[in-house]
Amino acid sequence: MKRVRRPFSLGFSLVEVLVAVAIVAIALAAGGRAAGALLDNSQRLSDVTAAQWCAENHLVNLKLTRYFPDVGESNSVCPQLGREYKLKVLVRPSFNPNFRIVDAGVADAQGVPLVRLSAIIPRY
């Protein structure tokens, strides 16, 4: 009886290679999206941190100078980390005439609100 030899193949079939390429492409696309989201979040964190510094600096300056602000609204520009942020300060009266409520809101250059801090400023 003669033995029949089956030819064996070396390598992968075309379908196997295409499946592997598709899996790698999906993994790379997901990694790219994750890296993009991480970059966006780090930029947002940097903007919010700088905006918070602007608001805190303004409120602390009011407290340290012992300035009792007039009721009303004012706008200014606050430079931080090489960027300019829009600072909007709203001063409101409180129930006690010896105190004022000061809201400091900071937005980026496009006007997107980033942070809002409030403080109560006493009359000294």
TrEMBL record:
Q: Report the InterPro entries cross-referenced here.
A: N_methyl_site, Pilin-like, T2SS_GspI_C, T2SS_protein-GspI
Cell compartments where the protein resides? Cell inner membrane
What does UniProt say on post-translational modification here?
Cleaved by prepilin peptidase.
Q: Which residues form the Type II secretion system protein GspI C-terminal domain?
A: 45-121
For this protein, the record's SUPFAM superfamilies field holds: Pili subunits
| Domain of life per record | Bacteria
Q: Which UniProt keywords apply?
A: Cell inner membrane, Cell membrane, Membrane, Methylation, Transmembrane, Transmembrane helix
One family from Pfam that matches here is: N_methyl
Provide the membrane topology annotation: Single-pass membrane protein
Family in the record: Belongs to the GSP I family.
Known partners and oligomeric status: Type II secretion is composed of four main components: the outer membrane complex, the inner membrane complex, the cytoplasmic secretion ATPase and the periplasm-spanning pseudopilus.
Cited NCBIfam families: gspI, IV_pilin_GFxxxE
Role summary: Component of the type II secretion system required for the energy-dependent secretion of extracellular factors such as proteases and toxins from the periplasm.
For this entry, the protein name equals: Type II secretion system protein I
Record the organism.
Ideonella paludis
